[in-house]
Write a structure and sequence with these properties.
The structure holds 2 protein chains of 2 kinds. Chain A is α+β, with helices and mostly antiparallel strands. Helix content of chain A is 40%, strand content 20%. The chains are: A alpha+beta, B alpha+beta. The interface between A and B is large, with 82 and 93 residues.
């Protein structure tokens, strides 16, 4: 009788299609008035020998039914039942419409994060500049051949120009803020030059400036090495060579080398020229000194993403933008 | 500058490092240098001389001096140069007179003469050296002048004495109307801004730039005048620009060269002429040099070297480096060195300049890399940046891609505007398409759509950037946020603005359809009385700084009501010109504070609706924060609303 009961119960459990049905089966056999419960209850009236044997068997059956229900419950709750329609989980998902950041924004954000974590504030300056801030305050005198390096867009009927670098922000910021200071200034710049894959009439730079007591070239190397390591990875190597920018002295060019690649010129820098400090009104007796640098954002993005044509940045072409 | 390796070697007794190695050393310590091709037995080095060293390093001598300092290979600079044998009886001053009108424009004018020369092709070794440096061989006299320039950096010029009228050379400004034909048969009109060398009558040379045709050296030339002069960089630059004429000579004068170069250079040229072209070098020279330039002295504090470079270099080493570059130290024992700077080092005027020399010869690679000791000053919060990042995040999440467009626009594009803004014009545009600074972001965004339509059915773009307008003699530069949507959908785009402003917690936003006639615009976006920007069917543009000003990060949590909400619907027929905002205002006024929200869920014109009407349907959500609302009170409010709405002429609540 117990065997039949067990078989019937197991059969019903296997056939149960949902959890509700399964609960019903549980109650039918193992509930307070369940079939098996009643068998177990009736044991007490049997003679000892028979009670022992039947009792053992009944408890085993109880255990088996309980196990079967437990298993089935697990399956039903995971699968959600067999009546759920089959779907192809390998078919592509429905994509929400998604926008993309401009690659220069991505690079700029990364650079800002790195420098902010080292205590640099992010500041801003105008794109239309005066000759004073773009050149004079930066120790680039009028009628000096050094000015030819910066091919300049001038504005008609106005004594103004489009900034050729972000360096004017240095002078503007120093004028208004006392040292010590640490800033970076990202922004758009303009050069009057013919356009090709590596030259554009507009481009983006980040200017950096740190002024303090005893801030030296060694400190510059420390900060910039840290920056390159975070940006390009710990394997990146850097080197300094002599360079000339009228607003710094000494001046240097910075090259980087990534694994398996050639040296790449990437940044101009130097120690802030005393004439710049003088122009912004720092007293020479103050003992303030520091470094400044400028790095091309377009160039950083080109290296990072292997972009081979600078004009793509300004094309507004979604086929390009969608990749970032 | 093109430099010959063998020529450099001639300044040293000992063997120099191999060309590739030498190029590396120059790159790391002086100038970026490429070890170029082998030319015969020689090698070409392409040295990119830095602008501040154009004074002294556009010459083999200059580069050799650098190499001497970097490598420590002893050079032959100290040796006395070879001199021509001068004629005993014939003096230059017996033949020629020199007149310099303005010593500021021509600080020095040095002349020598040779007679009975034999003008012919120059020897092979000179031709080869000129060739590797990119110069054409002309004849021995001209070649020697060029050769000396390449060696010393001092441009020289040779005249045929017999073609100079009146036996006089005058350095003067040209006169308006004067003309000159140069050696290459080009004609130039001259004026007062151009300095010339003239004979008794006419200009025979554009000073420091190019010689004239008239006193050209030719095969028959027997008597020559050699000139080694110093011209002001400003006048040379001005003339070179004005005439659009750049030469090897003008390049050097523009960058200013040492006044004290002329004598050594002209002596060298005289020596070579005598050796190669024969003839007699006349006795003496004419040297108009009224204001002598003497070496400068700079005090260099040893402590300052350490402080700026961040590395301790011993005084002995500092002195060694400076002396290797031909600086003289008067008091090597002192803490503050008195450094005498050779006159050809026009780039050195302050202690920092000397520190650069010490640093680069010592080796930048030997300067340690360390993080500065600085006080902890947290970076300032930049509101613009915070919100710029936030706005970009929001728009990208809403499916818009970011573009960076040109700050320039085409004249033709501007015509899209009904009301023309005062444009900022570029005086020297690269092209007509880039003639103006953009007065708005939308022109280029619309162009982006036109281009992208070819490949995409849907285009959603935005840009944050500066726009420009002219205001009298100033330029007003503003940051804007612009976005474009294709295919156009006004309500979708308005939803984008609403989401954006909501996320920035800008409230009190309203849309004003009172507009100047404009094809692109539909409404002004306003916050209270402030104009935030405008919106059209496919495009919007908002003032970025206004957004930042109005945005806030403050939020106050409102707990949801514990009591159930009751939703009632109202359907309404109105005239098609009726604005939703009017209906909403009336419902709110009639329904009072128990109205939690009103939701327009249908707006319909057409079939089943009477002609000339539109149907609006609203869910009205009632809820109280302190009790459960009863059907009775809601019915009363609903009645009141319906009554209010029906009081409007032509409105009808559908039941």
């Amino acid at each position: 009788m117990l065997k039949q009961l067990k078989q019937k119960a197991l059969q019903e459990i296997t056939e149960a299609k949902d959890l509700k049905k399964l609960e019903k089966i549980y109650r039918q056999y193992l509930g307070r008035k369940g079939e098996l419960t009643q068998v177990l209850r009736s044991l007490k009236d049997l003679p000892e020998q028979e009670r022992k044997e039947k009792g053992k068997l009944a408890n085993q059956v109880k255990k088996e039914i309980e196990e079967a229900i437990k298993d089935r419950r697990k399956k039903l709750s995971v699968k959600g039942g067999q009546d759920k329609k089959w779907i192809d989980v390998t078919a592509p998902g429905v994509l929400p419409s998604k926008g993309h950041f401009h690659p220069i924004t991505l690079v700029q954000r990364e650079i800002e994060e790195i420098f902010q974590s080292m205590g640099f504030s992010v500041v801003d300056g105008p794109e239309v500049e005066t000759e004073y801030y773009n050149f004079d305050a930066l120790n680039i005198p009028k009628d000096h051949p050094a000015r030819d390096v910066w091919d300049t867009f001038w504005l008609e009927d106005l004594d103004l120009l489009l900034r050729t670098h972000t360096s004017p922000v240095q002078a503007r910021y120093m004028e208004k803020n006392d040292p010590p200071l640490r800033i970076i200034a990202p922004g758009r710049c303009f050069r009057h030059e013919a356009t090709d894959a590596s030259h554009e009439a507009q481009f983006h730079q980040v200017e950096g400036l740190m002024i303090g007591k005893n801030i030296s070239m060694a400190d510059f190397k420390g900060i910039i090495e840290e920056f390159f390591k975070r940006f390009f990875g710990p394997d990146v190597k850097m080197r300094l060579r002599p360079g000339y920018f009228p607003f710094v002295e000494p001046g240097f060019e910075i090259d980087i080398k990534r694994k398996g690649k050639d040296w790449l010129e990437i940044m101009g820098a130097g120690m802030v020229h005393p004439n710049v400090s003088k122009a912004v009104g720092y007293s020479p007796a103050g003992g303030w000194q520091g470094f400044a640098f400028g790095v091309g954002l377009d160039r950083m993005a080109m290296i990072k993403y292997k972009i081979d044509d600078i004009r793509l940045f300004y094309s507004g072409d979604l086929r390009f933008l969608k990749q970032f | 500058m093109k430099i010959s390796y063998n020529w450099l070697q001639s300044f040293f007794k000992k063997k120099l490092p191999q060309p590739a190695k030498l190029a590396d050393l120059l790159t790391m310590h002086s100038f970026e240098t490429e070890a170029g091709v082998r030319v015969g037995k020689d090698y070409l080095l392409d040295v990119d001389v830095l602008p501040n060293r154009a004074h002294d390093c556009l010459s083999h001598q200059g580069i050799a001096r650098e190499i001497g300092a970097i490598t420590g290979v002893p050079s032959l600079f100290g040796k006395k140069p070879q001199q021509a044998k001068e004629s005993k009886s014939l003096r230059v001053s017996d033949f020629l007179k020199v007149e310099v009108k303005d010593k500021n424009l021509c600080p020095r004018y040095t002349v020598r003469m040779a007679i009975d020369v034999d003008v012919k092709p120059s020897p092979k070794w000179i031709q080869e050296r000129l060739k590797i440096c990119g110069l054409k061989s002309v004849n021995n006299i001209v070649d020697i002048a060029n050769y000396v320039m390449l060696e010393t950096g001092q441009p020289l010029h040779a005249f045929d004495f017999d073609k100079i009228q009146g036996g006089i050379l005058k350095v003067r400004r040209a006169k308006k109307g004067e003309k000159i034909t140069t050696l290459d048969d080009e004609n130039y009109d001259l004026d007062e801004d151009i300095l010339v060398i003239a004979d008794k009558e006419n200009p025979v040379c554009i000073a420091g730039i190019k010689g004239g045709k008239s006193p050209e050296i030719d095969r028959k030339t027997k008597r020559i005048v050699l000139e080694a002069a110093n011209f002001s960089p400003q006048i040379t630059r001005q003339a070179s620009k004005q005439l659009k004429l750049r030469t090897d000579a003008s390049w050097r004068f523009e960058n200013q060269i040492d006044v004290n170069l002329t004598e050594g250079a002209i002596d060298m040229a005289a020596y070579l002429i005598q050796k190669i072209a024969g003839g007699k070098v006349l006795n003496g020279l004419i040297d108009v040099y009224p204001k002598k330039v003497r070496p400068r002295k700079i005090g260099l504090d040893i402590e300052k070297v350490k402080s700026l470079l961040g590395v301790e270099i011993s005084k002995k080493e500092i002195v060694r480096i400076l002396e290797s570059l031909s600086f003289k130290i008067q008091n090597p024992k002192s803490k503050i060195l008195d450094v005498i700077v050779p006159t050809y080092r026009l780039d050195i005027s302050i202690p920092e300049d000397l520190i650069e020399e010490i640093g680069r010869i010592y080796g930048f690679e030997k300067i340690p890399s360390r993080l500065p000791e600085a006080s902890i000053i947290p970076p300032q919060r930049n509101e613009d940046l915070v919100y710029q990042n936030k706005i970009k995040d929001i728009l990208v999440n809403l499916g818009f891609s970011e573009v960076y467009n040109y700050s320039f626009v085409d004249e033709k594009e501007i015509e899209l505007y009904q009301t023309k803004p005062s444009l900022v014009e570029v005086a020297n545009p690269v092209s007509q398409e880039q003639k103006y600074l953009r007065p708005s972001l939308i022109l280029n965004l619309l162009k982006n759509v036109r281009e992208n339509k070819k490949y995409f059915e849907e285009v959603r773009l935005f840009e944050i950037g500066r726009v420009f307008e002219k205001d009298k003699n100033k330029v007003i530069e503003k940051k804007k946020l612009g976005a474009v949507l294709f295919p156009a959908d006004f309500y979708y785009l308005k939803g984008i603005i609403e989401t954006l402003l909501n996320k920035l917690r800008i409230s009190d936003v309203w849309y004003d359809d009172k507009l100047e006639k404009d094809n692109l615009k539909r409404a002004k976006v306003k916050v209270g009385n402030d104009l935030l920007g405008w919106l059209g069917d496919s495009i919007f543009e908002l003032d970025f700084s206004k957004l930042v000003e109005l945005a806030t990060e403050e939020r106050i949590y409102l707990p949801p009501s514990k009591y159930p909400a009751i939703i009632r619907d109202i359907a309404l027929l109105v005239d098609p010109g009726t604005k939703i905002i009017e209906v909403l205002n009336l419902i709110h006024a009639a329904g009072g504070p128990l109205i939690k929200d009103i939701d327009l869920f249908d707006m319909y014109e057409g079939e089943e609706i009477p002609e000339g009407k539109k149907s609006l349907a609203f869910h009205i959500i009632y809820q109280s924060n302190d009790r459960t609302l009863t059907d009775k009170e809601i019915n009363k409010l609903q009645e009141k609303i319906i009554k209010t709405l029906e009081e409007e002429k032509g409105w009808e609540v559908r039941r």
